[in-house]
Design goal:
By secondary structure, the chain is α+β, with helices and mostly antiparallel strands. It folds into 4 domains: 90 residues, Rossmann fold, CATH 3.40.50.20; 56 residues, Dna Ligase, domain 1, CATH 3.30.1490; 129 residues, ATP-grasp fold, B domain (D-amino Acid Aminotransferase, Chain A, domain 1, 2-Layer Sandwich), CATH 3.30.470; 76 residues, Phosphoribosylglycinamide synthetase, C-terminal domain (Glycinamide Ribonucleotide Synthetase, Chain A, domain 4, Alpha-Beta Complex), CATH 3.90.600.10. Helix 6 packs across helix 9 and helix 7 packs antiparallel against helix 8. The chain is globular.
């Protein structure tokens, strides 16, 4: 099977690593890619947002399957274009991708389907949003409605902070067009968990869960980032909770989308808050998470290509999906200054060191210089992953491997999956 992966981060490197293990694979390309994917596939210099070039690449490589990592090409209609050409794609249509591309769409969908979610109000008029806040003095969550690279969510402790956040989105355009419409949401509290369902339009696979860490510094402080680490599966995730999420969230959402004529195929990623009254959806994403993929994909016991093709072709019922009963911890190494200004082009040392068994290094912001030396090329540079029979052993292996790697200005959190916060990587909404 000839496979084209779209994307350039650690998520795509992890996907390439796992797909490379499939006996069904013949040829592999990565549109974008990095220094890590270069050792597993042929990298193609194509931006994820260049849908025309991606379609041409799928045709020129005679791809049997296109696996889409990031959300942007899905929101731009890549899956629709490929479907018109008869090329199977692992990822939802443009209309189905609205579940991430528009928070208002997702909230309206959940409200109509009876899916538990925060109370919310949607505004395209700044004055009306500010007026609404004057009558709501407590904590509030302000969200840019559109795609904002995972950063358009502002947690506000009171209406004054809420008003500043509204102006940041709408007047200052901190998130560009994504903030032209905003959502004001009820502020929830409790442990957060990321849940992933592989879907074929009607059916879905057994769920798998992970926890991630958004804040830059230990103790969940500092600015929000694209993700500083993750672990799977968390102790709070059990069969009872999984059944509850399947019945109350995943199944009704898939049914509602099918009824709307926008059946969902690909990975449905539900960010959940485990409140005292049960799990509630904070957001949906139309793709695998990053850094969660780096700790989830090693758990996949089934053939990844059989699973992804079954989702693309709508025959998941004919494919057995199973997950290893094991734990993985991933720690993200970032450039100094990230998520603000940072420098790149520094040599990365220690990548050839083997480290403990069951450890992996997934590249994100990296590139090769003309003589093949790996260099830093982004904010999030690497995800170092360790596996074990317990979270503790997985954590020890991940950090042991990480200590062998270095580059100028490297920064990472030292508390990923530590015993103090294993139950929840993030405990506020």
């Amino acid at each position: 099977m000839k496979v084209l992966i779209v994307g350039s981060g650690a998520r795509e490197h992890a996907l390439a690593w796992r797909i490379r293990q499939s006996p069904n694979l013949s040829d592999l390309w990565v549109a974008g890619g990095n220094a890590g994917t270069a050792s597993l596939a042929e990298n193609l210099t194509i931006r994820s947002s260049d849908v025309d070039a991606l379609v041409c690449a799928a045709q020129e490589t005679s791809a049997d399957l296109v696996v889409v990592g990031p959300e942007a090409p899905l929101a731009l209609g890549l899956a629709d274009r490929l479907d018109m050409l008869g090329i199977p794609v692992f990822g939802p249509s443009q209309s189905a991708a609205q579940i991430e591309a528009s928070k208002g769409f997702a909230l309206d969908l959940m409200r109509n389907a009876g899916v538990p979610c925060p109370e919310f109000h949607i505004f395209s008029d700044q004055a009306k949003a500010l007026d609404h806040l004057t009558s709501h003095s407590g904590p509030v969550v302000v969200k840019a409605d559109g795609l904002a690279a995972g950063k358009g969510v502002l947690l506000c402790q009171n209406s004054e902070e809420g008003a500043l956040a509204v102006r940041e989105c709408m007047s200052d355009r901190a998130f560009g067009e994504a903030g032209d419409t905003i959502v004001l949401e009820e502020y929830l509290s409790g442990p957060e968990v990321s849940v992933f369902a592989f879907c074929d339009g009607e059916r879905f696979s057994p769920l798998v869960a992970a926890c991630d860490y958004k804040r830059l510094e230990d103790g969940n402080i500092g600015p929000n980032t694209g993700g500083m680490g993750s672990f799977a599966q968390p102790a709070i995730w059990n069969s009872e909770l999984s059944t509850q999420v399947e019945s109350n969230i995943i199944r009704p959402v898939l049914q509602a989308m099918a009824e709307r004529g926008t059946p969902y195929k690909g990975v449905l990623y539900a960010g959940l808050m485990l409140t005292e009254s049960g799990p509630k959806v904070l957001e949906f994403n139309c793709r695998l998470g990053d850094p969660e993929t780096q700790v989830v994909i090693p758990l996949l016991a089934s053939d990844p290509l059989e699973l992804m093709m079954a989702c693309a072709q709508g025959n998941l019922s004919q494919t057995e999906v199973s997950w290893y009963k094991r734990n993985y911890v991933g720690v993200v190494m970032v450039s100094g200054g990230y998520p603000g200004e940072y420098q790149t082009g520094f040599e990365i040392s220690g990548l050839d060191e083997d480290g403990p068994n069951d450890t992996m290094v997934f590249h994100a912001g990296t590139k090769l210089d003309p003589i093949g030396t790996p260099l830093t090329a982004g904010g999030r540079v690497l995800t170092v992953v360790g596996g074990g029979d317990s979270i503790e052993s997985a954590r020890e292996r991940a950090y042991s491997r990480l200590e062998l790697i270095g580059f100028q200005g490297a920064h990472w959190r030292r508390d990923i999956s530590s015993s103090a916060n294993q139950g929840a990587a993030e405990t506020t909404g």
